[in-house]
Amino acid sequence: MQPGCGLKARKIRGRWYVYVWKYENGGARSHKVETYAGPAGSAKGRRRALELLLEREITARAALDRRIAKYRSALSRLAAE
After folding, report:
1. Is the dihedral of CA 33, 37, 38, 39 positive or negative?
2. CB 56 within 8 A of CB 72
3. What is the helix (H) or strand (E) element at residue 4, kind and residue range?
4. Which DSSP letter does residue 41 get?
5. What pairs with residue 34 in β-bridges?
6. Percentages (nearest 5) of helix, strand, coil residues in the chain
7. SS3 assignment, position 3
8. What is the dihedral of CA 49, 50, 54, 57, to 10 degrees?
9. Most CB atoms closer than 10 Å: which of 22, 35, 56, 72?
10. 3 pLDDT tier (thresholds 50, 70, 90)
11. CA pair distance 27, 10, nearest whole angstrom
12. pTM of the entire structure?
């Protein structure tokens, strides 16, 4: 698993645009996925970028919480032996 997500700005035809990237697992490999958020200079584009980042962090935290619960359960079973 490759953790992370972030912002990327691209200049296209003289204008800057914001993209949000993350890594997704695809079987044995992970790949980088980019989502367009909007023009870099607009409040709407910046807001959309932050919304996407927040959504991805919440999803990552939920996945981490599930893994922690799984490990705690396994440790409890081992302690009971």
Report:
1. negative
2. no
3. none
4. T
5. 21
6. 45, 40, 15
7. coil
8. 60
9. 22
10. low
11. 29
12. 0.74
